User: Fold this.
Amino acid sequence: MMNIDNNMYKTQQGFSLVEMLLAMVIGLVIMGGIMSVYTNTRDLQRSSEDQVNLVTDARFALETIGYDLRHAGVFGGTNISTLISCRMGDTACPATMPLATADCHSEWYTNIEEPISGGEGVAPAGYTCILNHKPNTDVLVVRYADSNPVETADLVSGTAYVRSNYLAGQLFTGTAEPVIPGLPELTTNHLLYSRAYYISDYSITPGDGLPSLRRVELMNGPQVQDQLILPGATNLQVQYGEDIDGDGAIDKFVNADAVTDFAKVYAVRLWVLIKTERDEEGLDTGRTYTIAGTSITTPNDGHRRLLISSVVKMRNMVKVDELAAAGSGS
Assistant:
């Protein structure tokens, strides 16, 4: 029989228990390091995404409101609202505008003599359309007509329009165009907008704890509908640049309750404070912000926040009597 060298058995032996345990420990240490790097990288990426989203969302909010403000006060061919009949309080209107379903108050959407107005820390009196308003945040109301004309064949039943030229105009709903005196070649139909921006104490369902920027808007019906604009918006503050002495220049910015005549507001200063929907454990987020001259302290709740502001000039609010201007040049 063949003799088998005992050394051969020794060279074919596996890892000892100690060696296996040591290898496992080393493996766990390596895996732990990899997981730590992955977790930190993931958290850093999510944090960066949150910061980018904050900036993007804040700009979206300001651009959305700013678009409306830049168009405020124009009603088709004129920005002199008293030339438009069938507006709120016009008892001489040949045809009564229908009341809107869920309107803020009677004839709210036809109140074009106030292209811009607001509430200082509260919803304006009688605004039943604004629900769950967050206390101490402002309300901004804007009214105007879309700059794009609507052809007669494209008029929609139940939708509010203004038909006008620079001499006269009339609000109407549906497909029956009113007869507007003079300048038929310059008389066009325009979709009417009435909107109110505010901060609600919820985003999706009441009580969800995430405030949001919302607006109530005139829709087809006519009806007034509540819309979500931006979840996470916690504060909206507004100041109005008013021409007090009538020289066409802004004298000072004041809060809504200090405006003497909204018809002479030619600029608006906005502040929007938003926060992330996700909180970050261990992140110190307690801050004090100065908004419209008032200090606001936010809780240390792990939610990143961003305050952004903007000034919007409203050149369309400066009244131009085109008929008088045409006469003076002759």
Summary: DSSP finds three helices and 14 strands in the chain. The CA atoms of residues 40 and 46 lie 10 Å apart. The chain has a mean pLDDT of 87. The first strand starts at residue 84 and ends at 85.
